[in-house]
Amino acid sequence: MDSVSRAESLAATSVDLGSAVTVRCWGTRGSIPSPGPTTVRYGGNTTCFEVRHGRQRLIFDAGTGVRPLGNDLVEKGPNAIHIFLTHFHWDHIQGFPFFAPLYDPEDKIKVVGPKQRDIDVQNLFAGQMGPIYFPVPFSVVAAEMDFEHLNEGTFEAGDVMLDVMRVRHPSFVLGYRIQVAGLTICFIPDNEMDGKGYEVGQGWEKRITDFVGDADLLIHDSMYTEEEYRSRAGWGHSTFEQSVRLAEEGGVKRLLLFHHDPMRSDDELDGIVSRLRDESLARGSALELEAAAEGVDLSLGE
Question: Which domains, and CATH codes, for the chain?
Fold first, then answer.
């Protein structure tokens, strides 16, 4: 079944299509946390994104932003939690050992992510809590844990349907297409739109355009300016303009620029967003765009 058919089926069976879907970025930075006075408004935590619908709370990536999210979950527990990973680079998993529900025996946590060659998801997580890297061993985790691989295909979590696609970034990296309550959200935090040498097969550009097609919200890697990209091609990240191009070609309604460079200040991001909006309006584009900001709830479908 294709993505459009799945979306129609999900919309037809949803018990509460009128309820809002809320999304929040708990961490918006790439590479390394960047706290300080110049990053207060857009945030300094690394990648973590949440989708909420009814009682469901789905987490995508576990950078340092997952720590405050975990604290919020503990206050409302006990919890049954899904964590979906795009990949295992440090800025996407470094918050996991500080995720408070791990140490609550009443919580259940299912971690879903792409297998990396011969290393499974559980061993990848346990490895970062080894004594060389972390003082607390994985054996002290008290929550009920379950791990599952997802390198291609689909996954269902309650009334949420997820499709995945391999994107252009070093290692095996996924983008997620999330369908819930008749809405489509695409989360692609690390992806080099114009990158070469990645094992993604022929026709990848059309596939990713279709993958984000008609999304209500696209959250996409927008780490570099065009000038910066000239010396960073092959590093696995896109420019602001490349993200806008993908969104416009895919008929996306709203774009959140994501995976902010740790050196990028709030004021710089303000200026970039203003320029991109002016350029978009001059093209007659209907795309809404902004930079992802940590801790801001966005309600969709209201």
Answer: 3-13+22-300 (3.60.15.10)
